[in-house]
Structures are given as structure tokens and as C-alpha cells.
Amino acid sequence: MATEVRYQYGDDPRWAASDWDDTEWARTPVLALPDSAGLMWVRFVLDVPETETLGLSVSGAVARDVFWDGILLGSAGRVGSSPETEVPGPMDVDLRVPDSLASTGSHLVALRVSSFQRPEAANGLLLHVIAGEYGVLLREPLYSIALPLVFLGAFVLIALYHGLLFAADRRWASLLTGMLCFAMALLLVAEGWRIVFGYPYDWHMLRLRIIETLTWATGVLLVATLAALFAVPRRRAFVLGLGVLLAVVLLVSGPHEVGTFVVFTLAIAISLGLAAWAIWHRKSGARLAFSGVAVCLVALVVARGDFMEAALFPAFGVLLAGLLANLGLQSRRQHQRHVATLATKARLEAELLRKHLHPHFLMNALTSIIEWVETDPPQGAKALEALSSELRMLADVADQTVISMGHELALCRAHLDVMAYRKGNAFVLEAAGVDMAAPIPPAVIHTLVENAITHNAYPEGLVTFVLREERTAAHRALTFEAPLAWASPAIRPERGGLRYVRARLDECAPGRWSLVSGPDSGPDSGSNSGSDSGLWVTRIQLPLDLPLEPAR
Amino acid sequence: MHVLIVEDERIIAQRLRRLLGDLAGSEITHIDVAPTLAEAQSLLGATPPDVVFLDLNLHGDDGFDLLRDVVAGAFHTVVVSAHTERALEAFEVGVLDFVPKPFGKDRLALTLDRLRGARAAHPAATLAVRSPGRIELVPIADIAHVHAADSYAELVLRDGSVRVHAKSLERLLVLLPPSFVQIHRAYLVRLNDIVQLRVRPGSRYSAVLASGAEFPVGRTRVDALRQRLGL
Predict the structure, then answer these.
(1) Residue A260 forms contact with B (CB below 8 Å)
(2) What is the pLDDT of residue A124?
(3) Do A360 and B10 touch (CB under 8 A)?
(4) Per-block average pLDDT, block size 10, for chain A (552 residues)?
(5) Which residue of A483, A545, B190, B225 has the fewest C-beta atoms within 10 A of its own C-beta?
(6) Which residues contact A205 (CB under 8 A, 6 or more apart)?
(7) DSSP-assigned beta bridge partners for residue A114
(8) Burial class (CB within 10 angstroms; exposed 0-12, middle 13-18, buried 19+) of B90
(9) With contacts defined as CB-CB under 8 Å, which chain B residues touch A455?
(10) Which pTM value belongs to this model?
């Protein structure tokens, strides 16, 4: 297309003629046509290459009649002198120049244009005229959209996959990745719409606004996804701030091409920073994310002038590859986690059972029971029943992740029965106000009871343990109190028993529990810790939403 | 016989007391029970027992470190434990017997036989000797001979140095390997070390050792020694 055109407001059919004297008309570079809605004529000379079938592609956000050496080739919409008389036509039209008119050399193109339907002024009249082989003019835009359409399919599939993943795992990273892919898919649709479907020119600005919004959303979602993937601290505020910043940048950065380029480049640069931060903190997948984003950034900067057409899709392609690789890594990690969970489960089950087949427990119990059998046979029989009952209950619960509190307390009381036959004490576990239906990992309270009896030298008589429960909006706190009667004066460090409790809590509510254990000599003698009186208090906090497996 | 039972399980302590009473009621003058080490130590200080029945896993503690300290005492130590896998370890530091849980009357009768003067079920590999501030484990192989000194025993080592053990000569003999023989009220020597049985004027005998040392042989022990030496 010619770089300089002449234009004139008004309307006169004679202005189509190739020999009309337009020397008095205003001259302007083609991109600097005035932002006027009025009816005008634009004239310029076009050099035509040698072709078999000459075509003329005329694009612009205007209704237009196209004249070739004074002869009307075709129209897009109906040019009018007022908003009422104008009918907007398609943005892009490809016209065939009759062979009789298609000689090589210079030809005069005259355009009669009006743009009353344009909602706001764009940069000039957005006129674009190319002469060339008619078939090529028709097909070329389709070639440019073919690859992006392939990406579109991939993005839609990955978005759906992450949507399903989010429904299952409720992780923000899954939802955000899905939304990111969906935003990219929409951006591709918005970009490709003009070529594939076309639209009247008065829709053009709307499409540009949609592309800008989607570019903004893609940038923000990319940063949000990385922030969620790498668990960046205070990421909500960070992403929110970035969203506002990019919106402001978009609004103040002028022309459409500049705005989208700057916004996208900024988002990619910030993503690169996040990935670098993740590498520094040794997050898994950080190196992959960094290289993906870095390649994307290079592609953007290199293809800067032709961002939407040349750089956007390759950049998306790199991001897509990164996302797919990350998916693979994630599923491998999930598999590893699953295997580790199974191993933990097996280990805890074995630990619980071994503890009660361990000679210290079993042989001491049997020695006491033999004594009962020899001195008081009916009591001996009851002692044996108590031991069998505890062992049976342990075998029942050992392979479960959680059981009901009622089940757990029955297990505790079975243990207390056995210990009563061994120690000659009467043991009581009070649990007033404890929700019997609520879930608890197996043998947790049981272990606390067991530790208390093992580490204390209780004098003959009644020993009372107390279990309390308090609920807040999100948590359930269980407090276990055991009277203190240390066998030796030193406070004992944490033993295997509490390690088991911690492992069980972590198995059923990873990272969402707490356990505090220590002496408490009563409200008025707090400093007297470690004495041989008072209480040993263990406090366990659990989330309210523990899943309760059906008890067998 | 004065017995101390150290056991944190009340019914098991009661069982030990009952069975020992049934088996040796006439010999046993007194039985104390201590459920904790602190109580055991205060009882040991008050009236030294002849034998301590010791559970090694009191209140969840592994009591094997403590065992060295206990076996250095003047009294015999009998370990009563569920951990049979550690019996050899216990014998090596010089316990008289290791009674595995659960135990019955017959098993305790065997322990009482050993207490009455038979050899330990396994000879010790070391003897724990208490010196100020620490316990030294003296390998049996290093001991040349043993002398009585009041109610104690002096272990004379092959390098000539001497360690004082709180146990009497008679109690040590029970723990030592059969290669040690008592040739006199006050002397234990190794049978293999004796190179000559010398007759002295007045029908008195002495044993000459390979090292050249010479120890008197008690009149009542001469015949038994001749027999052991194959003379």
C-alpha cells in the first residue's frame, strides 16, 4: 500500500476518476488519517505486481466503496452521510480485479468511506489495502491462524483437566492453572475471530477491548498460578496489587498494541521473578517454570513490533509445554506421596501392633495373669479376658486412619482393665462431654493413657485420668490430664509414644494439628512444674473436618 | 537371707514375694519391695540385702546401664525381665541368674539353688568394680587370683595391680568360670596356674603358681584340689 494518501471531506462521484485533479487535497501518511466520522474520499496510487488473477484486500473500520481506476470494484457496507444512512460492513473484504483492468504498473485506488458507527476514535481510519494474487489473499490469513487453532484445542483440554482436578483436590493451583488455560483459549478465540468469522467494523473496538481484558487476565492468572504453585507468602495481596497495577498500565499505555505488549511483558517478567524466588527456596518444579517463562520473555522482546501475530502464540506454546511438563511432574509427585502415605500407614500399623506383642507388654501381662490364675482363678480368667479384649481391639483399629472416639475410649478402657490386673490399681478414665461419634486416629488417647501408667509410679488405690473436649469454629481441642507421680525426679523427654501420636495425627490431618504436652500443677502453682504432684497435661488440636471412615 | 525385689509391677512383685516365701520361707529373713530405683537405693543403703531381684525396665527405662552399678554391690543380682534376648549381656557383667518373664515356681527354685552356692547359670566375662566416681569393668581374663580382705575381695590382676570388689570371696566364686578354685578360706586361684602342690612340715600344703607365687591350701580343701589336679 502507498505510504502517503490524499483525502478530502465531502462526496462527489467524479472523485473516483483516475484523472481527477487531487493536487489540492490534504496529504497524510496512511496511518495518520483524521479521526473523523464524516464522509470522505481517500485516493492513492498503487503499484501492481504481475499476477494471474489480481485481488485487492481492503481492511478498515469504515463502510467503504472501492474504485479501481474510476470503476467501482465492490463495497463493504453502505457508505452514508449520517449515522442513520450508513450501514456498517465487514472489516475485511477481498475484491477481485477484472483481468481487463489488471495490468502491471500504477493504478489509482479511490475509497469512499464513512465511519459513523465507530463507538470511539481509533488510530486513524485503520485502512489497509494490499494488491496481490487473489487466491493468496484469500488463503493467507487462514495459514496464520492454523497453528493458534491447534493451541486453542490444547488449552481447552488442559483447562478442562485442571477443572476436574480442582473438583477432586480443591487446590488453588489447579483452579488457577485451569483458569489460565481457559483465559489463553479465549484470547486465541478473540484473536482468531476476525480471520475465521469476520464481523462488521462497528464491533472492532469491542473486540480490541476484549483482547486487552483477556491479556490482562492471562497475565494476572499466570502470576497467580505460579504464586500458588510455589506457595509464595502473602500471595493474595501480591496478586491483587499486580492486577490493579496491570489494569492501570493498560489504561494509560495508549494504543492497543502497546498496551497489550507492555501488560503481557510485565506479567512475564514478574513471573520470571517468582520462578527465580522459587528456585532460591528450592521449590520443586521451579527450574522448569523459570526456563519456560524465560524463553517466553525472550520471544516477546525479540518479536516486540509484531507481538500479537508473531510472538504471542510461540510464547503461549512454550508456556503450554511448561504446564504439561509440570503436570507430569505433579502426577509423579502425587504417586510418590501416595506410596509414602501407604508406607506410613503400614509402618504405624506395625508399630502399634508390635508395641503390644513386645515382650515388655505381653510377658509382664502374662506374668501378672499367671499370678492371678494361681491365687484367685476367677480373677485370673477375667484378667485373661481383658488382655484378649485389648489385643483384639488393637488388631481391629491398627489399619485405620481414624476411628470414632467411642471406639477409642473402649480401647483405652480395655487397656486400663489389663493394667489394673498388673498394677493392682483401680484406673478410671473420665470423658464427660466428649463427642463419642467424632473421629480420632486410632490408639492416640490409648497411647497417652499407656505413657502415663508407664512413666508414673502411682501409689496403690484409685487413679483417675480425665479427657475433655472443647470446640471452636474450626477446631476441636482434646485435653488429656494424668496425675503426676514421677518414678524419677527428672521430667522425661518425649518418648516413642508421643512420636507415634504425632505420626498418626499427621497421617489423618497433615499439617493441620497441634500437640502440646507438659506438666501443669494447677492454676495457682504454675511455677511448680516438674514436682511429683499435679497433672501432666497433653493437649491435641484437630480440624473439625476429619473424615470418619466407617468402623469395621 | 535378706531379699530386695525391685519391680514396678505390683502383682509381679507380689508373685515373687509369694513364690520365694513358698520355696525358702525358712531361709528368708526379710523381703523388701521397691517400685522405683530411688526407693531401691534408699533400701540398699539402710540394710544391705543378700540378693536383689531386679526388673530392668522400670517405668519405661532401659535399665542395662544401671545394671553395671548394681552388680558391683556386695549382694548377688538376679535379673527378672521379659527381655530374654538380653540375658547374655546381663550374665557378662556378672549377674547370678536371669529369670525370664513369665516365670513359675520351678524356675525360681533353680535360682535359689544357685544362690545357695552352685555356680551362676553363665560365668561372667567381666566383673564390675566400683571405684570412687565410676564403675570399672575388669575382664575376667585379666584376673590372676583373688584374696579375701574382711568382707571384701581383692582382685589381683596379671599386671600386679589390685582392685577391691564389694562382694565376698564366696559370692565371687559363684560368678567366676570353673577354672577358678578356692584353695583356702582366703584365696581363689586358677587351676591351670598351679604347677606344684608342695608339702610343708606339719602336714601343711601350699600351691605354687607358674608365676612363682605360693599360697597356702586349707586342710579341708587338699583332697578336692588333688582330685581336680589329677594327682
Answers:
(1) no
(2) 54
(3) no
(4) 81 91 87 75 90 90 91 92 90 91 90 81 67 90 82 88 87 89 91 89 88 93 91 91 93 82 90 92 85 84 67 71 76 83 81 79 92 93 94 88 91 94 93 90 92 87 94 89 74 63 86 86 45 78 72 38
(5) A545
(6) A61, A118, A119, A120, A122
(7) A63
(8) buried
(9) 59-60
(10) 0.61
Pairing status of strand B194-200 against strand A92-96: unpaired
Spatial distance between the Cα atoms of A32 and A332, rounded to a whole number of angstroms: 57
Torsion angle defined by CA atoms of residues A443, A447, A448 and A450, in that order, rounded to the nearest 10 degrees: 130
Chain A interface includes B66 (CB < 8 A): no
pLDDT < 50 stretches in chain B: none
Q: Does A425 touch chain B (CB under 8 A)?
A: yes
Residue in A468, A465, A538 with CA at minimum distance from that of residue A505: A538
User: Sign of dihedral through CA atoms B209, B211, B212, B213?
Assistant: negative
CA distance A145 to A346: 55
Phi-psi region of B149 (alpha: psi -120 to 50; beta: other; left: phi over 0): beta
Cα distance between residue A321 and residue A329, in whole Å: 12
Using CB atoms within 10 Å of the CB of residue B81, give its burial: 0 to 12 exposed, 13 to 18 middle, 19+ buried: buried
DSSP run (H or E) holding B205: strand B204-209
Q: Which residues contact A234 (CB under 8 A, 6 or more apart)?
A: none
User: pLDDT digit string (tens) for B108-148?
Assistant: 999 998 888 777 778 888 888 888 878 888 999 999 999 99
Q: Distance (Å, rounded) from C-alpha A459 to C-alpha A420?
A: 12
Chain A contact for B9 (CB, 8 A cutoff): yes
A200: which DSSP letter?
B
Q: Do B12 and A423 touch (CB under 8 A)?
A: no
Contacts of A386 in chain B (CB under 8 A): none
- What cell does B65 get? 546401664
Q: Which residues contact A61 (CB under 8 A, 6 or more apart)?
A: A91, A115, A118, A122, A125, A126, A201, A202, A204, A205
What gap in Å lies between CA A167 and CA A268, rounded to an integer?
A: 28
Q: In chain A, whose CA is at the least distance from the CA of B83?
A: A359
Q: How far apart are CA A421 and CA A387, in angstroms?
A: 10
pLDDT at A372: 94
Burial B206-227 (b: 16+ CB within 10 A, else e): ebebeeeeebebbeebbeebee
For the stretch B164-180, pLDDT in tens is 998 988 888 888 988 89
Does the distance separating the beta carbons of A359 and B83 come in below 8 Å?
yes
In a 3-state reduction of DSSP, which class is residue A31?
Answer: helix
Predicted pLDDT at A464: 94
Beta bridge partners of B228: none
Could you give the angle at the alpha carbon of A511 between the alpha carbons of A510 and A512, nearest 5°?
A: 95
| CA B63 to chain CA centroid, nearest Å | 19
In whole angstroms, what is the distance from residue B31 CA to residue A287 CA? 73
For chains A and B, count residue pairs whose Cβ atoms are closer than 8 Å: 79
